[in-house]
Design the sequence.
C-alpha cells in the first residue's frame, strides 16, 4: 500500500504541525493514525492494517460506496455549478428530503455543512418569530460557527469559551441515567415530562424578564452530550411549551438522521407521529463524506424568510454534484434496506453489550437505538461516578486491537458506537469480544489514579488519550538504539 | 441532450417552487436557464444551446476540468474521511497554500465555504486581539452566515437587513469612480491614502468611544461593491492604522484569489510586496465548484487560537477529496500558466472594452485587472448617474445572445466579467462584439423609464431582470393558442 502515500508518516506529521492550525486535533494524539483508504466499515492505514470503524457516522452507507462514488464522479465530469440555474438533481433531492419528512415540512435549503444548516435554521427562526432568545440543552453541540458556539454549552462552558450569552437559555439535558432527574430517584415517573417542565419554566422566566423565545434547538438524540436517548414525552411537551411562548422548534438531525435509528428516518420520529418540529437540520451522513447538508422547514416559515426580502445565496449549496451524491445516499439506504439492517444489527449489539454489563462492573448503562449506541462506564454503579480515565484507556487499547471507537458525554466516559450503516452482526460480535477482553484487563489493573487538575487529566479531557505515551517513549528509545546500531 | 434531463423544464420549475425556499433566487427569473452540462468556459442548456460563461468565477480552471474531475473521482473511490486522521492530501494542500502566500502566512485551517472561512477568520481575530469591533467597507459582502451579514452592508442595509450592529464600523468603499472621493474631484491626489484616512478616523473615534478594534476585513478587490479596483496605497495605510489600533487585518480573497488578477496569486499583492494581511480567506475558485475553502494565518495568531484551549473541528474541512481537488486546481493553474493567460486575455478584454467606451456614451468607466473586469454604465458621464435599468436590460439581451454576464455594485449598473480562467482572446472579442450591438440597440431605444419605487424597480434591484416579461406573456398566449388548436 506504499503507493497510496505521498510521503512517510513522519513527514506528514511534521508538515501538519507546521501548516495546520493546532486547534485541529488528531485522534489518538500520542500515536495518530494515517489512513490511506477505506471501504465499507473498514479503514486501512499506510501499512495496510485494517481497522473496524465504529465511529464514522459520516461514511453512512459505508466508506466509498460504489453507487455514491459513481454518482459523484459522473456528475463531477458533467456539471458542477450553483443553484441560480435550474437543475434536476437539486429538485429531486429536495423532493426526496421532503418526502422523508412528515407534513408540513416540505421546503428545503441546501447548504454545505451541519454548521451552515444550524446557522440558517436560526436565521429562519428569527425571521419567522421576530424574537431572539434561544433555548438549548446542557452539553449540546450544534457546530463550529460563532453563532453556534453561542448556543453550545459543550463549547461555551469549556476552555476558550466565553460563557453563556444573555439571549441563550440552557435547559438540562434529558439524561435519565446521570442527569438532573435520574431513573433511580424517580421510579415510575414520566421523566420526559419532568425534563420538559424545565423548558416550561425557562419560558415562564423569560416572559417574566421581558424576553421573547425565538427557538428551542436540540439534537433529537444528544450525541456529544453522551449518546443520550431522549425519554418519551419529552419533545411532545417541550414543543408545546415553546410554541406557546412564541418560539419555533428546531430538530438537529445532523448526527442522528438518515435512518441511523433504524425504525425511523429521523430520530425525532421516535417520540411519536404527532411530534413534528418546525425546522429540521440534516448533514453529516447526507453526503457520505461529501460536504452537503440541508434545512427543511414549513412553507409558512420559508415564506416569512422570503418576505424579509433578503436573498439567500450559498455558492455551493445544492450544486448538482452534492445533490447527485445525496440522492445516491438516499437510494442506497432504500435499496439495501439499511434502516432494517441498522435495527437488526443495533439490537444485536445492544443485547451483547447488555450481556457484557452483567459481567463487567465498569459498565453502568447500555443504551441505544439502531446503530446509535452508548456504553456508559462508571467507577461505581451506586454513585454513577464517571470512569473517565478507564474509558480513555479502553479507546486506546481498542485501537491497538484495530477497532476505532470513541467516547463522549461531559465526562467523556460514554463509549460511543455509531458505525457506518453496513456494520454487520459479526462486526458487533467482534467489537464486544474485544471490549470484553479489554474491560477484563482494565478491571484487573485499573489505570493509575489521575489528579483531576493535572495536565494529564486535561489531555484526557481533550479525548486524545496518552495512556500509551510511556510505551511510545520506550519505542522511540528502541528506535534510537536500532538506528545507532 | 434529452438524456441529461430527468424531467421537462416545466416540472423542474414546479418542483423548485414547491420544495426550495423562495429566498434562493434564480438568474433570469422571468425565464431561468436549465443548465445540464458544462465544459471549459461554456454551459449548455437542456436544448444543447451553448452559453459563453463570463461570470462563473467558481469554475476557475474551466468547468469540469479533466484533471480536477479525475483527482476528485479517484480520491472519492479511495477515502473520504475527516482530518482527525493524518492524510497526505491535507498537508500537501496546506503546504501549497502556505507556499503561495508571503511570510509569515503559513498556518491553514481547511473549511467548506468562503462563509465558513470568514466566520473562522473573525474567531481567530477575536482570540488573538481579545477585542470585538470590526471595520468593514461599505457595500461589502462577506457571506451568508449570521455573523457575516452583521459585517456586510450589502446585506444589513438592504431589505431584510436589521442595520449596522454597534460593534461594526463602516468605512467608505475605496471607489474612485463613484465613491466618496472621486478621481475628478481630487486630481493628482493619493486617493488610496485619502480613503485610508477614513479608516484612521474610525479607529480614532472608536478609541474615543472606549471601543477596541478587533479586525479590519475587506475583499482585496471589492466584488459585490461593483468590481472595485482598490487604489494604490490603500491597504498599506489601512493596515498600519488598524494595527496601531490593536486590530488585525483580514484579506477576503474568496472571490478574487487564486490568480484571477493574473500578475499575482492574491489580489492584496497588487498593493505591494510589503502589504501583508494577518489573515487571508480563500474559497470559491479553490475547488472549481467543490465545497472547499481555507483560512491562512500567521503562526502567532494560530497559537493564540490554540491557546484558548478550544478545539476546532470541521467535519468535512480538509477531507482527502476536497484537498485532492484543491491540489489539482493549483496544479492546473501552474501547468497551464493560467495566471499569465489571465493577464493577456484580461488586458485584451480591457482594451476592447475601452475602445467600446469611445463609441458608447453609456459606458462611464472600464476597470479591471486580469480576468476581473467591470464596465460601469452611466446615464450621464458628468454626473455619473447609474444606468441601472440599462444594465439589467443588457444582461437579459446578452443572455438571448447566449452570453452570461451579470451586474453588481450598489446600483447594479456595473457589468461584471469574471469568467473561468480558460476564457480566450476570441471569447473576449465575441463578448465585446455582441455588447457593442446590444449597447447600440439600447442607445437607439432606451428601456422605458422606471419609477424607482415601483415593483418593477424592485425586481431590477434583485438583479433578475424581467425586461422580456411582456415577450414571455405573448409566448404563453401563443402556446395556449397552439395547444387549443
Sequence:
Amino acid at each position: 500500500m506504499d503507493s497510496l502515500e505521498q510521503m512517510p508518516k513522519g513527514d506528514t506529521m511534521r508538515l501538519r504541525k507546521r501548516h495546520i492550525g493546532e486547534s485541529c486535533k488528531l485522534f489518538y494524539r500520542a500515536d495518530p493514525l494515517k489512513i490511506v483508504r477505506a471501504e465499507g466499515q473498514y479503514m486501512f492505514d499506510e501499512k495496510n492494517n485494517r481497522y473496524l470503524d465504529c465511529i464514522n457516522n459520516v461514511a453512512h452507507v459505508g466508506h466509498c460506496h460504489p453507487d455514491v462514488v459513481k454518482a459523484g464522479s459522473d456528475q463531477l465530469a458533467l456539471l458542477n455549478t450553483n443553484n441560480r440555474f435550474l437543475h434536476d438533481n437539486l429538485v429531486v433531492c429536495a423532493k426526496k428530503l421532503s418526502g422523508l419528512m412528515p407534513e408540513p415540512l416540505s421546503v428545503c435549503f441546501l447548504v454545505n455543512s451541519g454548521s451552515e444548516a444550524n446557522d440558517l435554521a436560526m436565521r429562519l427562526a428569527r425571521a419567522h418569530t421576530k424574537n431572539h432568545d434561544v433555548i438549548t440543552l446542557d452539553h449540546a453541540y450544534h457546530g463550529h460557527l460563532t453563532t453556534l458556539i453561542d448556543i453550545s454549552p459543550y463549547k461555551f462552558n469549556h476552555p476558550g469559551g466565553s460563557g453563556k450569552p444573555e439571549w441563550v437559555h440552557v435547559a438540562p439535558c434529558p439524561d435519565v441515567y446521570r442527569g438532573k432527574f435520574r431513573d433511580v430517584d424517580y421510579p415510575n415517573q414520566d421523566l420526559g415530562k419532568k425534563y420538559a417542565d424545565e423548558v416550561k419554566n425557562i419560558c415562564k422566566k423569560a416572559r417574566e424578564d421581558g424576553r421573547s423565545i425565538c427557538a428551542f434547538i436540540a439534537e433529537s438524540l444528544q450525541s456529544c452530550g453522551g449518546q443520550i436517548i431522549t425519554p418519551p414525552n419529552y419533545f411532545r411537551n417541550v414543543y408545546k411549551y415553546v410554541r406557546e411562548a412564541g418560539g419555533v422548534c428546531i430538530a438537529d438531525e445532523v448526527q442522528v438522521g438518515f435512518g441511523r435509528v433504524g425504525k425511523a428516518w429521523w430520530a425525532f420520529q421516535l417520540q411519536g407521529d404527532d411530534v413534528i418540529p418546525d425546522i429540521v437540520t440534516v448533514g453529516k451522513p447526507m453526503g457520505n463524506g461529501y460536504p452537503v447538508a440541508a434545512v427543511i422547514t414549513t412553507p409558512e416559515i420559508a415564506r416569512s424568510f422570503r418576505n424579509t426580502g433578503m436573498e439567500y445565496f450559498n455558492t455551493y449549496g445544492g450544486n448538482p454534484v452534492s445533490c447527485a451524491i445525496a440522492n445516491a445516499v438516499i437510494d442506497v439506504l432504500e435499496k439495501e434496506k439499511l434502516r432494517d439492517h441498522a435495527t437488526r444489527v443495533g439490537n444485536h449489539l445492544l443485547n451483547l453489550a447488555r450481556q457484557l454489563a452483567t459481567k463487567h462492573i465498569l459498565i453502568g448503562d447500555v443504551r441505544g437505538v439502531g446503530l446509535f449506541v452508548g456504553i456508559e462506564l462508571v467507577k461505581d454503579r451506586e454513585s454513577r461516578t464517571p470512569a473517565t480515565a478507564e474509558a480513555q484507556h479502553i479507546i486506546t487499547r481498542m485501537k491497538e486491537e484495530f477497532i476505532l471507537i470513541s467516547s463522549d458525554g461531559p465526562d467523556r466516559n460514554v463509549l460511543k458506537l455509531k458505525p457506518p450503516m453496513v456494520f454487520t452482526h459479526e462486526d458487533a460480535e467482534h467489537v464486544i469480544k474485544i471490549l470484553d477482553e479489554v474491560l477484563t484487563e482494565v478491571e484487573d489493573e485499573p489505570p493509575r489514579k489521575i489528579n483531576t487538575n493535572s495536565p494529564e487529566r486535561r489531555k484526557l479531557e481533550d479525548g486524545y488519550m496518552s495512556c500509551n505515551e510511556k510505551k511510545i517513549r520506550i519505542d522511540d528509545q528502541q528506535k534510537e538504539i536500532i538506528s545507532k546500531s
Notes: Residues 66-335 of chain B form a domain with the Aspartate Aminotransferase; domain 2 fold (CATH 3.40.640.10).
